[in-house]
What does this fold into?
Amino acid sequence: MRIDLHCHSAASDGTDTPAELVRKARAAGLDVVALTDHDTTRGHAEAIGALPEGLTLVTGAELSCRVDGISMHMLAYLFDPEEPALLAERELVRDDRVPRAKGMVAKLNALGVPVTWEQVERIAAGGSVGRPHVATALVELGVVPTVSDAFTEEWLADGGRAYVEKHETDPFEAIRLVKNAGGVCVFAHPAAAKRGRTVPEARIAEMAEAGLDGIEVDHMDHDADARDRLRGLAKDLDLLVTGSSDYHGSRKDVALGAYTTDPEVYGEITRRATGAFPVPGTGGA
It folds into this structure.
């Protein structure tokens, strides 16, 4: 089995519609794909409706979190999307995305960059707006060559010249909320140092004690040394190890299935989840 547990659609900051994403996942030879848009489950229904035969969908979301002033992301799998407390928190984070993006536009304007809110809104195309949409605007204007090049201290990285904070959930609260909604929690790309400061291992150990299920190890932003270190940490803390592409369509230079999760780990994730269940494809439109 080929299993990719971290993908984004146009419901947040990917470029493929949810339907396109699942069709491409099957064409790429995947057996299981997770749709984990930022702080939203809005794309799930479309993905399920288009799910091709032979592909199983894991529903989820990537939750925006912050601890000790460090931004981090929590992958939440197979939770009940209608559980009130987790739904309210996702909406709180999502609602803060628009004023935050407008604040980044204002800062860029002050730096002499002629980006407009209308441009960012067009790029987001109704998705959950985020920094990648602002970064894409910078690419369109020729300010930076790629989206990744916008995530530097000069522009949009944490603490960068055009960075604006948004509401982000405490990860311990996120773990509690996801668990109460029957879901499973995996810390996304914990050693992605090029994105900014990373969470210390001591804090990850505390999260493990609080119910964290796993850490994403095999990821494009982790070099070989980081992966080895994270595997050792996962073993010490009895955490599951996942691998994922973090696919965003054309917005990132990574292919579906570039990194995958071991079938036994996937089986354990599904065993632990009680809020929702993987959806097998039956040949959707």
